[in-house]
């Protein structure tokens, strides 16, 4: 047993199927060798396993989860969570009031008054 060089069926790149990966696959009970290079495998995983094709290297960039900050709603006084650091110069609304604000503000029809 030793490292194997395989060819990716998507991009044609040669890649190494290392001994440890072979062990890993065997441990998982996978019978097949990987048919795609790690890049293409990751790309497929990232795209949710949808259709094939496309391609090119779009390196997977991990999207950091949005950090939420606790604040007090300027409208109803309930606890609100906002994706930015609340500062004194901006009103902070809970999600309820926020959607109400939006409805009232730029909503359908008539209302022309803009905030900001
Ligand atoms: Zn590939
Ligand atoms: Zn509120």
Secondary structure: helix percent? 25-40%
Strand order of the largest sheet: 1-2
Number of strands: 4
Largest sheet: 2 strands, antiparallel
Q: Using only CA atoms, what is the Rg?
A: 25 Å
- Judged by helices, strands and strand pairing, the structural class is alpha+beta
Number of helices: 3
- Please report which band the strand proportion falls in: under 5%, 5-15%, 15-25%, 25-35%, 35-45% or over 45%: 5-15%
Bound molecules: zinc ion
Structural shape: rod-shaped
Q: Termini separation (Å)? A: 67 Å
Topology as a string of helices (H) and strands (E) = EEHHEEH
- Mean pLDDT across all amino acids: 80
Unreliable segments of 5+ consecutive residues: none
Summary keywords:
single chain, 116 residues, alpha+beta, two-stranded antiparallel sheet, two-stranded antiparallel ribbon, 3 helices, 4 strands, 14% strand, rod-shaped, binds zinc ion
Task: Provide structural commentary.
The chain has 116 residues and is an alpha+beta fold. Among the domains are: 4-46, no CATH class; 69-104, no CATH class. 25% of the residues lie in helices and 14% in strands. The protein has helices spanning 19-28, 38-46, 95-104; strands at residues 4-7, 14-17, 69-72, 79-82. Strands 1-2 form a two-stranded antiparallel ribbon. Strands 3-4 form a two-stranded antiparallel ribbon. β1 and β2 form a beta hairpin. The chain is rod-shaped, with a radius of gyration of 25 Å. One zinc ion is lined by residues 73, 75-76, 78, 93-94, 96-97.
SSE order and pairing:
Elements: E1 4-7, E2 14-17, H1 19-28, H2 38-46, E3 69-72, E4 79-82, H3 95-104
Antiparallel strand pairs: 1-2, 3-4
Residues 73, 75-76, 78, 93-94, 96-97 line the site of one zinc ion (ZN).
